[in-house]
Amino acid sequence: MKVSCHAERSLPCRPEVAFAMATDADRFPGFFTGFGPIPAIRGVRLHAPLAAGSRRSVHNADGTVLEETITAHDPPVNHAYTLSGFSAPFSWLVASGEANWTVTGHEFGARVSWDYEFTVTHRWRWPLAALLVKLFMTPAMHRCLKNMERALGP
Fold first, then answer.
1. For residues 30 and 43, what is the distance between their CA atoms, to the nearest angstrom?
2. Would you say 21 and 31 are in contact if contact means Cβ atoms under 8 Å apart?
3. Which of 16, 59, 115, 129 is packed most tightly, with the most Cβ within 10 A?
4. Taking residues 83-100, what's their average pLDDT?
């Protein structure tokens, strides 16, 4: 079973700039500040240049380290990855996550769409996993996109 969440925002910049912000290992941790039990990201370590099949480690504020495997990288339009390595108690609910970023241009800048689909460990755990994802991950994603917009200035 899967649990999905979505965040979307228009940014006042070219699609290339929005895409770069979403994929920059140095800048992105400053945008993803977490929400509730979803920890902020403190650092991202690339194991190879961004491309389909490359990996990176995501170091969180709570001390956990997650692994991302890039599944699509098509600048400045699409970036997708699989997230794994969750620790307890989240790992009791969720086995992995699949993220997909899509950036499109429009007359006022760039529209950034970010989708996550989490694979739940057991069917009977779906209600709690869905509640946590909807209550905490979705707001964390919205906050991240808002922080990206703030970084672009007035």
1. 9
2. yes
3. 129
4. 93
Q: Does domain 2-151 have CATH number 3.40.30.10?
A: no
Euclidean distance between CA atoms 38 and 112, whole angstroms: 21
CA distances from 122 to 50, 87, 132 (A): 32, 16, 15
**How many residues are there in the chain?**
154
**H or E segment at 31?**
helix 28-31
- Interval 4-30: pLDDT, tens: 999 999 999 999 999 999 999 999 999
Q: In what order do the strands lie in the sheet with 2-11?
A: 2-11, 109-120, 94-106, 78-84, 65-74, 55-60, 41-46
Strand ranges in 23-138 using DSSP code E only, listed in sequence order: 41-46, 55-60, 65-74, 78-84, 94-106, 109-120
Instruction: Please state, in angstroms and rounded to a whole number, the distance separating the CA atoms of residues 34 and 19.
Output: 20
